Amino acid sequence: MKKSLFKIVTLLTILAMVFTLVGCSGNKTPASNETSNDSATAKKSLKLGCLSTTEPALQWVKEGLKEQGYDVEVIMFDANQLPATALKDGDIDGVLANHKPWMETFNKENNADLAMVEPYYYYSFFAIYSAKYKSLDELPMNTQMAVPGDPTNLSRSLRILRDAGLITLGEKTGSFYTLLDIKDNPKNIKIVETDIIHTARSINDVDALISPAVYVAESGVVKADEFLYEDTENKKFPIGIITRSEDVNSEWANDIMTLLRTDEYRKKFDDHFQGKYVMFE
Description:
5-stranded mixed sheet, 41% helix, alpha/beta
């Protein structure tokens, strides 16, 4: 009798343990599904950074991707390096603001690993502008020339001045041309370094400047096509969606570029920017 009772108690104990394990397993399944769903939702929720000039294109992204189930938040910054910094720090998912050489310099200087999604979107029309003079020959002695002061764009500006025949450059002392590399300066041009998004604001205060056309056009003083000299290497400075390297081939990044390259959004681009930016084929 005692043995039978012992067997019954033992069997009941085992059954209780089995039901407990099954119950725990059942509780874990919904949690696992919930995590999976949250992950999928996270991939459809994007924060994209921009500057005032590139904000319209990201609004098109927000509009177009909504139909695909994306929730896009567009965050505008007021300084050229801020979107890339926020991206590096993980505060946003992508950026439409800077050209590729600038991004590569940012990576080196900030131990970052940002990448530009291919195919590239467009390139900026970069040139010498003046509100006071109609040709390079008219520029006076001691010309004040405002240029972007970050290493990549300062180097580019000095190369443009060289190519335009206004200065002579020696060998680079580093990765970029600097003011120390100016060898001959016949007009004694005075270089005024500025933040690239503010350079064009000084167009009435200097003799000439070097700037992307989009900022010059915003000034309302000079039109985008009223330049004294165009950078012959504009296409070497592509602009596109920048992400952290692990996201450059992601589905959402591909969806953005697929949308922007459709005929509908190409027309939006051309109608809005009107030659200030040039879209790649």
